[in-house]
Design brief:
The protein is of the alpha/beta class. It is built from eleven helices and twelve strands. The strands form two sheets. Strands 2-1-3-5-6-4 form a six-stranded mixed β-sheet, sandwiched between helices. It is globular, with a radius of gyration of 19 Å. The structure holds NADP nicotinamide-adenine-dinucleotide phosphate.
């Protein structure tokens, strides 16, 4: 049986083993997928161990995504662009790194009827998740993406790295969010505000009142299933979606990469969603 896993620290609450083993069983593949706690200063040691123990590949979450980049023998365009690896395939002693978060995000957005094509987007946050997700908005045809972040310098860096001129930094103050939201038809939350186990919350939701009524609100957070942002947006009749679809689709793309095969994504996504919700 071939070995796959997810590494991270902490890792006990990861949904990846359930998601991947559900797909592996459904496809009748000869793999098993586990979770391994690997401290942040041991990424290189882990890679050597995974090769020695014959792993076929692994996923990586915090705090390994950036550490893996210089350790790879080859990198996909997305992994290079984001400076982060979430999926590693091991073959003939070589490590091939990719990042399926951005593609998973775009697919989930479309599945939620929030195709970014032609939209002006208010993106909240400029951390690791934003670095993977936001470039996909432009690839998906978004007209412009305003990146609002508490640490403005981080938003400026992200926009400068894109270089298209269609990503514009914005302040994270209630006034600035309100003013920007009025010009947008999609809001994407890439901050950790509202996530289970974290303390922070939006100072004000008034920007949702400025947002045109038909504008969608997509939150990358999936735990809780309904963040306060989504609850407030739904109260104002905006179409809403949480980040569960993104989690599922990045896993589907990762399994395709591990196994070098294509999967019936929509059918698999439905199956996994059922497994996660049961
Ligand atoms: P990160 O790199 O630590 O970035 C956190 C972001 O949240 C930064 O933009 C940070 O702003 C902002 N933030 C944190 N506390 C804040 C506060 N009190 N006020 C304003 N802004 C605040 O984390 P990440 O990896 O990007 O993850 C962000 C979220 O995305 C997490 O909740 C995670 O669950 C979710 N996520 C979901 C998926 C999925 O598959 N659905 C995948 C990846 C991540 P500063 O830069 O100013 O600190």
């Amino acid at each position: 049986m071939k070995k796959l896993c997810v590494i991270g620290d902490p890792i006990a609450h990861s949904r990846s083993p359930l998601i991947q083993n559900t797909m592996i069983r459904a496809l009748g593949l000869d793999y098993e997928y586990t979770a391994q706690r690997v401290p942040g200063d041991q990424t290189a040691q882990w890679l050597a161990r995974a090769k020695a123990e014959g792993y076929a590949g692994f996923n990586a979450t915090m705090p390994h995504k950036e550490n893996l980049v210089p350790l790879m023998d080859c990198l996909s365009d997305d992994a290079r662009r984001y400076g982060a690896v979430n999926t590693v395939r091991l073959r003939d002693g070589r490590a091939e790194g990719t990042n399926t978060d951005g593609e998973g995000f775009l697919r989930a957005l479309r599945e939620a009827d929030m195709d970014p094509a032609g939209r002006t987007v208010l993106a909240l946050g400029a951390g690791g998740a934003a670095r993977a997700a936001l470039p996909k908005l432009l690839q998906g045809g978004a007209a412009r993406v305003y990146v609002a972040n508490r640490n403005l310098r981080r938003a400026e860096d992200l926009c400068a790295r894109d270089g298209s001129g269609r990503m514009v930094p914005a302040a994270f103050t209630p006034e600035s969010l309100e003013e920007t939201a009025a010009r947008c038809s999609l809001v994407v939350n890439c901050t950790s505000l509202g996530m289970s186990g974290t303390a922070g919350q939006f100072e004000s939701f008034a920007f949702l009142d400025a947002l045109p009524r038909e504008a969608g609100v997509f939150d990358l957070i999936y735990s809780p299933a309904q963040t306060e942002l989504l609850r407030q947006a739904a109260l104002r009749d905006h179409p809403v979606s949480n980040g569960l679809g993104m989690l599922i689709w990045q896993a589907i793309f990762a399994l395709e990469f591990f196994t070098d095969s294509s999967i019936d994504g929509p059918a698999m996504a439905a199956l996994v969603r059922e497994a996660l919700e049961s």
